[in-house]
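Hey everyone, long-time lurker, first post.

I ran two proteins through the pipeline my lab uses and got sequence/structure pairs for each. Pasting them in order. The first:
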Amino acid sequence: MPVQNLLNPSAPVIAEFKGLHIAAGLNAVTGDEGSGKTRLLRELSELHSETIWLDLKLPECNLQTPLEVWAHWRNRCPRWHEALCLDLCEALDMTPHLEKRLDMLSTGGRRKVALIALLASGARITCLDQPFAALDQVSIRVLCEFLNDMADHTSRAWLIGDYEADARLQWTNLISLRQA
């Protein structure tokens, strides 16, 4: 059964899902292995039209380049931020890899491609599933800076699923999942 702790009661509620309030800003979705973090994020994206979630490994995209992956999501996301995509590409050191197929990239490189797509999507609710896994420290710092810049957003929400709520982030809401 989920336990919710709204840290900023003045934050607008963007959506309700399975009895949970999704607040504007950063929402931590925490729990042990098998507690349902990924399932919750994926189901939210399937049932709420303004939500995006991706498997950060991009298993169906092996033969595509980062540019092809982003072009696909650019076409599917009406509020796509091209300038942000390019800025993140540079900040996450992906520029030298733009012409490589995903099956030629490291795990961290593949995850960066997916993270850039998610962050540039412009979705009202963006779901990030263990976003720091397999990233180098510079990329983790870039991602933390981006998310903290979004912490006070009043019309968008980011749900970050992980084992714990990362202390480097400015959380609006904590959702703890417990195994049944």
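...and the second, right after it:
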Amino acid sequence: MIVISFSEIASNRLEFTVTGHSSNNRGKDIVCAAVSTLVQTFIRGIEKNLNAKLKGKFQSGDCKLLIEVPEKLAQEFKIISEIFKEGFHKIAESYPEQVKLN
């Protein structure tokens, strides 16, 4: 099972965690591919467009990052985070036995 969580620490900081796999069929699972695509787009998008600083680990099946953006971009960060949460929510809703959003 893939478990995803967004834990807000401050208006411009959050802990983003994604752990696990949706099946043993690595590299061929559509659910894992969907989650992976959203994770990579979220992380690279905020890093590039909001000058986010990332601390932690980011590897297959194990992502635990502390994300911080400049204070002046906190509102944009919140909006983007909410958009991606909705994407993860829709995947979890469609595949509840494979994905859980905390």
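Reply from user beta_strand_b:
Welcome! Quick read of the second one: Residues 74-94 form the longest helix (21 residues). The two ends are 13 Å apart (CA to CA).
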